[in-house]
Amino acid sequence: MKRQLVLEDGTFFVGKAFGSTKDSIGEVVFNTGMTGYQEILSDPSYCGQIVTLTYPLVGNYGINRDDFESIHPAIKGFIVKEVCDHPSNFRSQMSLDAFFKAKDIPGISGIDTRKLTRIIRNYGTLKGAFVSLDADRQEVIEKLKSTNLPTNQVEQVSTKTAYPSPGRGNRVVLVDFGMKHGILRELNERGCDVVVVPYNVTAEEILLLNPDGVMLSNGPGDPKDVGEAVTMIQNILGKIPLFGICLGHQLFALACGANTERLKFGHRGSNHPVKDVRTGKVALTSQNHGYAVETNSIENTRLEITHIALNDGTVEGLKHKDFPAFTVQYHPEASPGPEDANYLFDEFISLIETTKKEGEKACQSV
């Protein structure tokens, strides 16, 4: 069965359909990772997007039970050069096509993904649609131009109720803006007693949980659409050690008076070099974001830039000058990608321990 991908600029591609047969509309983005398609398709940060994979062969090691970053994928579609119908891997339980049929996600293969990626790089992210071959392209283009992308992606992927992930160590409240399971895994491996809470949790509700630290997760969309989270961060800043990742990093910046901006085509891949400006050390990082903190907006805040992207100089890490709080734009939990930055979770635990000791000393001196 054939289907077509139509972009809002009038470009169209005809390829082979796989997965669900339904039509779909979303923001078309690309990811440059060579592996990790299962983690990519299940990353909640791709909510509402149609994801193009630049690596030519996808699905060759199948789908397994262990590599999901969420239970219910939120992507609108998948675009690949070639999809493998007969995967070969000892962990494989089904093919990509079978999984997408089960989850009602449409895909297209057999198109020139290099050309599509060049279009996005030149013109920026575009809205696109999966439609049947007999669909009127001009009507589809007009529909794309008149369709507004959703602004409630975080609400769609965040947990609706709080739940525990017990441990015997430090209590960490993990605010779920579209959390990858890899973040929860890294906290659990360090013995943390984690409580996962919804995106719209208030500062008062967090404080009632008596946490030792707060983690702000990744998530989809524009950080300015999550105003309640900015208010929450402002009301806990300085009271509890804080660590933010990706969207959490952007929300932290907004809460501290900085600004965010939309990138032309975003950073999505597994090999983005990031420099720690304090040490000069460079790490290869996993990234997935379409917005960034505006560099010039940091100047009149109490924030310090700790990391920058070597590809384009954008802000990749922040630290508060007065309070125990730091954030990064990239994903230290990887999944997929290199684990160069995994040590940041240890730094978060050390920050919690240091803050607790300082609090004990202050109590003893009173």
From TrEMBL:
A Pfam family hit: CPSase_sm_chain
Pathway: Pyrimidine metabolism; UMP biosynthesis via de novo pathway; (S)-dihydroorotate from bicarbonate: step 1/3; Amino-acid biosynthesis; L-arginine biosynthesis; carbamoyl phosphate from bicarbonate: step 1/1
Region (CPSase): 1-171
Reaction equation(s) it catalyzes: L-glutamine + H2O = L-glutamate + NH4(+); hydrogencarbonate + L-glutamine + 2 ATP + H2O = carbamoyl phosphate + L-glutamate + 2 ADP + phosphate + 2 H(+)
Domain of life: Bacteria
Catalytic residues (UniProt): C246, H331, E333
Residues that coordinate or bind L-glutamine: S45, G219, G221, L247, Q250, N288, G290, Y291
GO terms, molecular function: ATP binding; carbamoyl-phosphate synthase (glutamine-hydrolyzing) activity; glutaminase activity
Single biological process term from Gene Ontology: 'de novo' pyrimidine nucleobase biosynthetic process
UniProtKB keywords: Amino-acid biosynthesis, Arginine biosynthesis, ATP-binding, Glutamine amidotransferase, Ligase, Nucleotide-binding, Pyrimidine biosynthesis
UniProt-listed Enzyme Commission number(s): 6.3.5.5
Chain's role: Small subunit of the glutamine-dependent carbamoyl phosphate synthetase (CPSase). CPSase catalyzes the formation of carbamoyl phosphate from the ammonia moiety of glutamine, carbonate, and phosphate donated by ATP, constituting the first step of 2 biosynthetic pathways, one leading to arginine and/or urea and the other to pyrimidine nucleotides. The small subunit (glutamine amidotransferase) binds and cleaves glutamine to supply the large subunit with the substrate ammonia.
PANTHER family, per database record: CARBAMOYL-PHOSPHATE SYNTHASE SMALL CHAIN, MULTIFUNCTIONAL TRYPTOPHAN BIOSYNTHESIS PROTEIN-RELATED
Family, similarity comment: Belongs to the CarA family.
Quaternary structure (record): Composed of two chains; the small (or glutamine) chain promotes the hydrolysis of glutamine to ammonia, which is used by the large (or ammonia) chain to synthesize carbamoyl phosphate. Tetramer of heterodimers (alpha,beta)4.
UniProt name for this protein: Carbamoyl phosphate synthase small chain
Species of origin: Sutcliffiella cohnii
